[in-house]
Design brief:
The chain is an all-beta fold. Helices cover 0% and strands 47% of the residues.
């Protein structure tokens, strides 16, 4: 799933993204743990690893979108 960063607090490494389907999903610092992501900027495109479905949809990891 891909999304755009809509909020990000560098002090807590938490924020939210707006998915391409129009759903805003919050994330915390754990979503960045184990990834090369250290800082995000508003409007940045990211790829998400998610868990759950529907109302239980949650972000497990946030990744940069890389071009082949």
């Amino acid at each position: 799933m891909q999304a755009t960063v809509s909020r990000y607090d560098a002090a807590t490494a938490s924020g939210a993204v707006l998915t391409d389907t129009g759903i805003e999903l919050p994330f915390d610092a754990e979503a960045l743990t184990g990834t090369p992501v250290r800082l995000l900027r508003l409007g940045q495109r990211v790829r998400l690893t998610t868990t759950g479905t529907g109302a239980g949809l949650a972000i497990a990891e946030v990744h940069f979108i890389t071009l082949p």
